[in-house]
């Protein structure tokens, strides 16, 4: 499954290339609570088809109703000019200004958001942006507010959306990528979750018996040795590497290679004891230090009392998304910390009451 922004842009480009009228809506400002972050995009076709989201649904419904009626009225209008198809320079629209309107559009208490609406974006420029994203490039798309003219430029780092009296600039990145070491049952659940969260998933396992039973469509499966695959994968700041085999011969070297990249998340499955043993091996045999292993996560996941492969996959995916989104999780949600506290409480029921742990 493609990144949602790419899906929106690709669908919009298809509509425009087919000669259909359409608009692109971008969340440019929010006040208070907002269901979608600044930079979120949605495309709306003249027939009411919509892709993407700028809210929980009510604002989309209003935009669909407002603009499909305008398209229909324009198509049926006589020459008296009573109706016009939405067109021309981009325009701003606000939702949730009053408490009644916020309630009507399903916005949280005090929530207000502002959208920029671009009418009939150029399909050629949309195709050029999609091609750059497909090639793995981070791109800035700048819209001149006076006339809607668009310019594209590569950029080196993600930036927050910026808007002023002259222009809007939004950064679009290539897909987030996940590399899984091991094609077992847990990997299938984790790959499935990653795919519907917009990650491109690659699964590496040199063991034919595991590759042969792989059943998740949409993931790329490779058979080379994991450390070689990491080198070829070239993890960047939009990549994560997760080792799931429990086999040091497969996991350790791959994790060490991943730690030398900009991957935003590098972790390996295993118990507290197994993860301590992994770190000890890396320090003893591969000249690593505690500092060089600081980015290595394990035990991976957040503590939800998970026991089964699908529950463990939920735990791991939740941690990956938290790291991706820049959320610092409380220590008592870390698997090792939570299990240590539970053991302490079990061995000394009064410990938590006394503030220990």
TrEMBL record:
<protein>
    <submittedName>
        <fullName>Cytochrome oxidase I</fullName>
    </submittedName>
</protein>
<feature type="domain" description="XdhC Rossmann">
    <location>
        <begin position="178"/>
        <end position="320"/>
    </location>
</feature>
<dbReference type="InterPro" id="IPR003777">
    <property type="entry name" value="XdhC_CoxI"/>
</dbReference>
<dbReference type="Pfam" id="PF13478">
    <property type="entry name" value="XdhC_C"/>
</dbReference>
<dbReference type="InterPro" id="IPR052698">
    <property type="entry name" value="MoCofactor_Util/Proc"/>
</dbReference>
<feature type="domain" description="XdhC- CoxI">
    <location>
        <begin position="15"/>
        <end position="73"/>
    </location>
</feature>
<dbReference type="Pfam" id="PF02625">
    <property type="entry name" value="XdhC_CoxI"/>
</dbReference>
<dbReference type="InterPro" id="IPR027051">
    <property type="entry name" value="XdhC_Rossmann_dom"/>
</dbReference>
């Amino acid at each position: 499954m493609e990144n949602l922004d790419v899906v929106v842009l690709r669908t919009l480009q298809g509509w425009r290339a087919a000669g259909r009228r359409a608009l692109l809506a971008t969340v440019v400002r929010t006040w208070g609570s907002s269901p979608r972050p600044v930079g979120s995009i949605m495309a709306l076709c003249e027939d009411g088809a919509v892709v993407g989201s700028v809210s929980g649904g009510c604002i989309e419904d209003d935009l669909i109703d407002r603009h499909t009626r305008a398209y229909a009225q324009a198509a049926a209008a006589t020459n008296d000019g009573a109706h016009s198809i939405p067109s021309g320079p981009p325009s701003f629209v606000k939702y949730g200004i009053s408490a009644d309107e916020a309630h009507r559009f399903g916005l949280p208490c005090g929530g207000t958001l502002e959208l920029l609406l671009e009418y009939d974006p150029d399909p050629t420029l949309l195709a050029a942006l999609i091609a750059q994203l497909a090639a793995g490039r981070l791109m800035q798309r700048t819209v001149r507010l006076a006339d809607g003219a668009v310019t594209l430029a590569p950029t080196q780092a993600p930036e927050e959306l910026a808007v002023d009296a002259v222009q809007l600039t939004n950064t679009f990145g290539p897909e987030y990528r996940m590399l899984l070491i091991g094609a077992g049952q847990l990997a299938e659940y984790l790959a499935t979750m990653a795919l519907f969260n917009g990650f491109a998933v690659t699964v590496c396992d040199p063991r034919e018996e595991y590759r042969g039973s792989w059943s998740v469509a949409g993931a790329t499966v490779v058979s080379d040795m994991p450390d070689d695959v990491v080198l070829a994968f070239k993890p960047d700041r939009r990549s994560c590497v997760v080792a799931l085999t429990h086999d040091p011969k497969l996991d350790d070297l791959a994790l060490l290679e991943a730690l030398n990249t900009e991957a935003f998340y590098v972790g390996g499955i295993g118990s507290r004891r197994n993860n301590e043993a992994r770190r000890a091996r890396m320090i003893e045999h591969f000249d690593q230090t505690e500092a060089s292993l600081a980015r290595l996560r394990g035990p991976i996941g957040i503590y939800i009392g998970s026991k089964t492969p699908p529950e463990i996959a939920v735990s791991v995916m939740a941690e990956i998304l938290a790291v991706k989104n820049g959320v610092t999780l409380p220590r008592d949600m870390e698997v090792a910390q939570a299990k240590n506290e539970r053991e302490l409480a079990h061995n000394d029921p009064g410990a938590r009451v006394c503030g220990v742990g």
